[in-house]
């Protein structure tokens, strides 16, 4: 069978290491299914399929445990699990955690997967399969795990006509035309499996640039069919809604959140939603951002808007994810805006509102300092929003494993409660007394056979899910897990490929916008470079706004002499960012406008360093090509050829980025290319 990437990391290949394989064959001969709830049935099916593939042997299904049984369940659903007395351990693991342990049951060695809920059992089953797929010895297995973050949610920017905003992997997975009748479409189940294997417990199925029609009965009936499919996988369905829906759907003259008629409209609609989807998760809202309607259109603020929706959802246990991605052309510095709008509202949001904040203050750039709202909103539930889809990373043409970006965000120190107050800890609920926290990622799967189009976009989806479960994982550990399951466990494959996983994101920074440059994209498509000074159109949509390159220097002054955005951070960071010498060089030009001759740590001038970084980025892509070619024998032909061809595209684009940016900056500063620079292609 040709490998087309459809199975992602759930390939369940026979264990290549023969010694380990025979060990697995002895340890896993059968599964004992407890009750038959839909979720436990899924766990049983997954274990049977997975173990059959991994061991290469048939997996029996006896009623009582024998040697080599996998026994799984909750203490309620399984008398065997109950007899193992795991209660103390389970008590500490909440609803979704699990225990996996090798035990003796009536003198027979078995493997137990125990949890407090069926979905915890499902997560434990996927975890066991992950351990086996990565060739972990499990004879002494004793592990337990519970998710760090409460809401682990994927966001789709799918329009109702199936075009996916920033998707790059075909049409939307949701085939509205055949729903609700054809809910057995196997892709829906596989989609849910993929997410559940990571512990993802929510999905927002439609674009934040929302179509009001999603709340009509016509679409609710279809959404409900999807919710039915996702439910046994522990995945709740959420919808993005348009703030002025009462106007668009029912001819209201206003959508003022303080108007009782408007409030009533939402209460009734929400009630309807719960009739269709009894365990509906809630709403995601983009308001007063990029032309979307919002409470400010009626002279109200974000809290007024969010609270009105929250009130309607509250009786049913739903939440509102209210996005903090706001900016307007009138604002002097786009960096400042979300903080300036949201900080005064800290403490004003209802308990079931979660403010969803992109990792950086601008917009999913290849590198951003963290948004200063993290560590500042102390009395408002928050969620971190990441982007798996590669809007700013070369779409689905470039290889860019974003594990390093995601961990950079999670490990960023806000200093909110002194040193070590990382965003990861805040999201894990260890710092402030939040009622809810969340992590969301905009993902891009479409009807492309392998879901994401570039096979390596899968790795960022994987990294997101794993990190939402455990914010302390490292990007290299996750990258290795992913490589092993998705391609091969062979160390001659893993070792060189780990380097690709480590450098691909940085390469993308280097050939596009090194040293803290940002947003040099052509307007609209966000793919290629357009650093030039385009004076037409919205200033904050042109590159000049971000790089401010003039004859004397380059960079955006966000210190006291400029927009003073650095004041939004806690003192330690404000102080650090005040001085270019103490600002990390990889974000230097985010905060400082510096002369072209400014001296860098390397001893090079800023101009020389910039050129050097652009060259490095191109060289890194060439390195990735060589590495990929060196692992040819370990990869199936189809994926090998595809990635190889895409790396050629990437190299072409990297050179284009370098040459466009360097030539433009050179036209501004009039400086010669540093000695030894490669000639433009
Ligand atoms: O990244 C920008 C994108 C828009 C997107 C917006 C957002 C959904 O260019 O396409 O709209 O962010 O996050 O709302």
Automatic annotation (TrEMBL):
GO terms for biological process: xylan catabolic process. One of its GO terms (cellular component) is extracellular region. The keyword DNA damage does not apply. The active site is at 290 (proton donor), 363 (proton acceptor), 391 (proton acceptor). Residues 452-676 form the Glycosyl hydrolase family 67 C-terminal domain. Belongs to the glycosyl hydrolase 67 family. This is Xylan alpha-1,2-glucuronidase.
